[in-house]
Write a structure and sequence with these properties.
The chain is an all-alpha fold. The chain is built from 14 helices and 2 strands. β1 and β2 form a beta hairpin.
Amino acid sequence: MTTPPRPHPFWTIERRDAVAGYTFIAPQLIGTIVFVLIPLGLVFWYSLHEWNVLANTFTFKGAANYQHLLNDPALPQVLVASAIFSACLVVLNMTLAILLAVLLDQKLRGITVFRTLFFSPVVVSLVAWTIVWGFLLQNNGGINGFLQMFGITGPNWLRNSTTAMISVVVVQVFKNVGLNMILFLAALQGVPKELYEAARVDGASPFKQFRRITLPMISPTILLTSIITIVGSLQVFAQIAVLTQGGPGFSTTVLVYYLYQQAFQFHFFGYGSTLSILLFVIVAILTFAQWQLRKRIVFYEN
């Protein structure tokens, strides 16, 4: 008489490992669903309606908000201002961060103090930092007072379309350049010193060493910081709200501030949600494009 096969136990090692894995990722997964996916779906739903909080009405509009988006006469100016701000911020931030990281990577006495000084603006309150710069950039503020000591009459920095954009870019660069600097500094310290020694033996100049060794070896960090900086530049709000309120005209009205105006100042929540969808699409496209370029700009990927 043959013994019947024993049934497989339900609580197998594979299922136990699966439950443990899902348990570990559950907090992150729940947070993503509750705070990212559900709000994103609600924003899209609101973009198909017009929600008048004052009149307590919620009217279905279909694609009317998206039609308004295509016909909005102010939107091209807003997108141009956003592009100028993001391009200037990314170029200045990345360039300055790399240069500071290279300088602070030197084995000099007291270099830790300078690293702390350059990083300290990152931990300062954003609003407090912006308010201080607002006082400095006023027509009779500290910067123009300093220039007056040399007989130079400074402009009204925040009330001129050109200098207003320059001012908000510089304020943002000084605020966050320390974060990218630390990331680049960590990447530089991971570059094998033997590569530089071999390059010096072969007679390579410092610039060629930087171009042929340093940049390729830190290219993964460059990719990471470029994505973070570009996404952050498209989400800037507090600096614009405190310094210029989007003016003069639309010269510093970036997309996030225009979204805030439409939704929370003019109470067009449906159109504000539509602008949020536009911002999401722009960020997604730029992030995807950078990620696809990684095989060309990142050293160790082919």
